Amino acid sequence: MDARLNFYGNTLGARFSQQIHAAAAVVVGSTLPHTTQKLVRIRASQINGSSFCTGIHFKDSLRSGETLLRLTLIATWREASVFTDAERLALELAERGTRLGTSTCGVSDDVWAMARKHYDEDELSALVSQIALINTFNRINVITRQRAGNDDLVTLHERENLTAQPT
Amino acid sequence: MSARLNFYENAVGGKFAKHIASAGKVVSDSALPRATQNLVMIRASQINGCSYCTDMHTKDAAHEGETSVRLNLVAAWREATVFTDAERAALELTEEGTRIADSSAGVSHDAWTNASKHYDENQLAALVGLIALINTYNRMNVLIQQPAGDYQPGQWG
């Protein structure tokens, strides 16, 4: 089962990838908590069915000290008691911002107002960026059927140096 | 009506948007026909309900010579006779590549095979990048409720 297209090995794909990784670095360098960034990445990747992204970000989170319990409950966070109010809002925004074509567009005024209470303008900009960007990566990997076996995740991910960030 | 967040003027949002724009340039400079790029961006933006992007890319397409008949039929291209087979393949890939949420199937074998018949590897990479990227812009603008209607072709240089 090979990827349909070697996107990252293609010259255009590699140059494109370089730019979106630069965009990712902006999010990583922001004041939005890294734990929250990772929750958002995982939730969106689950919704979009991206094996590669779900695998990478799950491994990243484990490596950074996230608990298995919280990781397990991301997919069903609404009744879970293990996320902070701020994290729950980030997850809500992630879901709404991901499911654009299939549900009420975007985020309601009420939810946005609550998000404003927990996140300042820089953090909210980073959150919007993160939600948009994980959807970028998800699509590249879903459309090209990027493999997500253990070796694939370690090799490509570490080569791409996606987690050049403090834990 | 104004955006609910000053995203593009914000230090984080502005820097982020700059890199997204650079990624966009990689695609727009590619061998994927410009007319096709516009159709892809319009279709995805319609599906995602992004007013700003729909306005911008429809106006850009018209400005670059796209006909009103074809622009009117992008939203309902399947029974339309006004698109080439290559464009239809790109539109199908766009729809499937946009609607991946909660879909167990991802992008179908047929859609991919059909696209591969019409586009070489570099054009396919551009198509994948473009579909991914317009979905990025759609989300930025929908989340902040960026108002739409005032766009003028060439305003972003």
Describe this structure in words.
The complex is a heterodimer of chains A (167) and B (157). Chain A starts with 10 loop residues before the first helix and ends in a 7-residue tail after the last helix. Chain A has helices spanning 11-28, 34-47, 51-63, 68-73, 85-98, 109-118, 121-143, 150-160. Chain A is an all-alpha fold. In chain A, 65% of the residues lie in helices and 0% in strands. In chain A, helix 2 (34-47) runs antiparallel to helix 3 and helix 2 packs parallel to helix 7 (121-143). Chain B has 157 residues and is an all-alpha fold. Chain B has a single domain (11-143), classed as AhpD-like (Up-down Bundle). Chain B is globular and about 45 Å long.
Quick recap:
Chain A is an all-alpha fold. Chain A contains 8 helices and no strands.
Secondary-structure blueprint of this entry?
The complex is a heterodimer of chains A (167) and B (157).
Chain A: H1 11-28, H2 34-47, H3 51-63, H4 68-73, H5 85-98, H6 109-118, H7 121-143, H8 150-160
Chain B: H1 11-28, H2 34-47, H3 51-63, H4 68-73, H5 85-98, H6 109-118, H7 121-143
CATH topology of the domain at 46-160 in chain A: AhpD-like
How far from one another are the termini of chain B? 25 Å
Beta-strand share of residues of chain B: under 5%
The CATH homology group name of chain B: AhpD-like
Radius of gyration of chain A: 16 Å
Oligomerization: heterodimer
Structural class of chain A: mainly alpha
Instruction: Give helix and strand order of chain B, one letter per element, not per position.
Output: HHHHHHH
Instruction: Find the CATH topology of chain B.
Output: AhpD-like
Strand count, sense and barrel status of the largest sheet of chain B are: none
CATH superfamily of the domain at 46-160 in chain A: AhpD-like
> What percent of residues of chain B adopt helix (DSSP H or I)?
55-70%
Number of domains of chain B: 1
The structure class of chain B reads: mainly alpha
Shape, per Cα inertia axes of chain B: globular
Largest interface, counted by CB within 8 Å of the partner chain's CB: A-B, 51 and 53 residues
Q: Specify the number of helices of chain A.
A: 8
CATH class of chain B: Mainly Alpha
